[in-house]
Amino acid sequence: MSHCRNMHQGIERQLREKYVTIEREIEDLREVMRQDRALEPDPADQACTASSQDWNMIRFNRNVKLLKDIAVALKAIDNDSYGVCELCGDDISGRRLLAIPSARYCIECQEMIDAHPGEFGRTGIGGGVLAAV
């Protein structure tokens, strides 16, 4: 039990550090996206600027989702339900939690969700395995 508690403490520390890092990156991205950029006269420059803006929006959206996933994991740690699959109630393996600290489902349930995303209220686009933190 002590090993599990130590592992959870290490994961909690990692999650809290990642949370702060992602918050900073989100703020940086917000600032970049807020900047009013004059339209480039050259079509190639326009395309480059548009591509950069699209990439920043993708990164921003991904980071917002990661922040939500981390917040859910931290809340589960706080209420002692961390490491328990939200679907079947079984323990999530320690190896899975080390690989994906914000995992909410055991590997079996996650595979089922990924195989049948519509049945679990997900679009299947980016809604599979929670991003590794």
Task: Explain the overall architecture.
- By secondary structure, the protein is mainly α.
- Helices cover 63% and strands 0% of the residues.
- It has four helices and no strands.
- Helix 1 runs antiparallel to helix 2.
- The longest helix has 36 residues.
- The protein is elongated, with a radius of gyration of 19 Å.
- The relative contact order is 0.13.
What key phrases describe this protein's structure?
single chain; disordered C terminus; mainly alpha; 4 helices; 133 residues
How would you summarize what this structure contains?
63% of the residues lie in helices and 0% in strands.
The Cα radius of gyration reads 19 Å
Which spans have pLDDT < 50 for at least 5 consecutive residues? 123-133
Distance between the termini: 24 Å
Class by SSE composition: mainly alpha
Helix percent reads: 55-70%
- Strand content is under 5%
So how many helices? 4
Average pLDDT, rounded to a whole number, is 82
Please state the overall shape, judged from the principal axes of the Cα atoms: elongated
The run of helices and strands is HHHH
How can the largest sheet be summarized? none
Number of strands: 0
Produce the secondary structure layout:
Layout: H1 2-34, H2 43-78, H3 94-99, H4 107-115
Helix pairs in contact: 1-2
